[in-house]
C-alpha cells in the first residue's frame, strides 16, 4: 500500500516516517508539509519525494498518515477520504464533533479503512489487559492521571501552538479516554474544572453507571510528572500495564491494522468512529470547564 505522509514535525519524522519507511507491506511514496524545506529534508531522509501540494500527494497514494494539528488534520483527512484514501490519523481526530462527523461520513460512504493512533492501544500488553477487563466486568470506575511537563527546554513538543492553547485535555486526554472507554463504556455526562498549571480535572458518568476520573496537564512540575491508569470494582484494583514497546513499534502495529482492515473490510476498534466518540467527550469536557455545568457528549 502506497502511503503519503502529511506533516514534517518531530512525530512525523521520528515515528510515522520511520515506521512507514521500514514497513515490509507499505511504501512511503511521498511527503507534504506546510514548510517546503522541511518536507524536502524529510523526503530525502527516507528516500522518497516531497510534494508541493497536499492534494497532489493524496491523488498519488492509497492511504495517508497524518501528523498535524487536529484542525488541519480533520480537513486533510476529509479531502483524502473523498479522494478514496484510507486514513491513518493521529489523536485527537478533530477539535469538534462536526469536523469529526464529516470525516466519519466520508469514510463510511466510500467504505474506507481508518485507524486513529492512540499509542497505548497498539501495544499487545495493553490490548490484552483491556480485552480481559472488559470481559470480566464488575468495574465501579477507572482513574487516569497524565501529568506531563512538555514546556521545558529540549522537549520537541513544547513549541506546539495548539498544545499551548488546548492543554492536556486535548493532548493526553485522548490517550486516557482510549483506555477507559473500552472497559467502562460510553459516557453519558461530563463535568470538568480547571486546575493549577493548566490542568483539567474531568469526571465522567458512564452509561454503565461506572465513574471515570481524569487528571491531565502538560505543564506539571518536574517532581510531579506521573502517568497511571487503573480500574476498581468487585475484583479489586487492576492497573493498566506499561506498553513495553516503542512509539515506532506501536505505529508499525497501527499500520498493520490499517492494512488488515483495508483487506478484510472489518472496522478497527480504533477507527474514526471511535475517534469521534473520544472527540465528543473532550468537547463536552471543554464546554463544562468553561460554563461550570455538566454536559452530555453529542
Give your account of this protein's structure:
The chain has 298 residues and is an alpha/beta fold. The chain folds into 2 domains: 2-120 and 247-270, Rossmann fold (3-Layer(aba) Sandwich), CATH 3.40.50; 123-242 and 279-291, 2-Layer Sandwich (Dihydrodipicolinate Reductase, domain 2), CATH 3.30.360. 44% of the residues lie in helices and 23% in strands. It is built from 11 helices and 11 strands. A 6-stranded mixed sheet has the order 7-8-9-6-10-11. Strands 2-1-3-4-5 form a 5-stranded parallel sheet, with helices on both faces. Helix 1 crosses helix 10 (247-264) and helix 9 (173-184) crosses helix 11 (272-291). The two termini are 35 Å apart.
Blueprint (SSEs and pairs):
Layout: E1 2-6, H1 10-22, E2 27-32, H2 36-45, H3 54-60, E3 63-66, H4 70-82, E4 86-90, H5 97-110, E5 114-117, H6 124-136, E6 139-147, H7 161-166, H8 168-171, H9 173-184, E7 187-195, E8 199-206, E9 211-217, E10 226-233, E11 236-239, H10 247-264, H11 272-291
Parallel strand pairs: 1-2, 1-3, 3-4, 4-5, 6-9
Antiparallel strand pairs: 6-10, 7-8, 8-9, 10-11
Helix pairs in contact: 1-10, 4-5, 5-11, 6-9, 9-11
List keywords for this structure.
298 residues, Dihydrodipicolinate Reductase, domain 2, 2 domains, five-stranded parallel sheet, 23% strand
Q: How many strands appear in the DSSP assignment? A: 11
N-to-C SSE series?
EHEHHEHEHEHEHHHEEEEEHH
Percent of residues in helices comes to 40-55%
CATH architecture verdict of the largest domain: 3-Layer(aba) Sandwich
Rg for CA atoms: 19 Å
Number of domains: 2
Quick one: overall form?
Answer: globular
What do the pLDDT scores average to? 98
CATH topological fold name of the largest domain: Rossmann fold
Distance between the terminal alpha carbons, to the nearest Å?
Answer: 35 Å
Strand coverage percent = 15-25%
* Low-confidence runs: none
The CATH superfamily of the largest domain is identified as NAD(P)-binding Rossmann-like Domain
> What strand order characterises the main sheet?
7-8-9-6-10-11
Give the biggest beta sheet: 6 strands, mixed
Question: What structural category do the secondary elements indicate?
Answer: alpha/beta
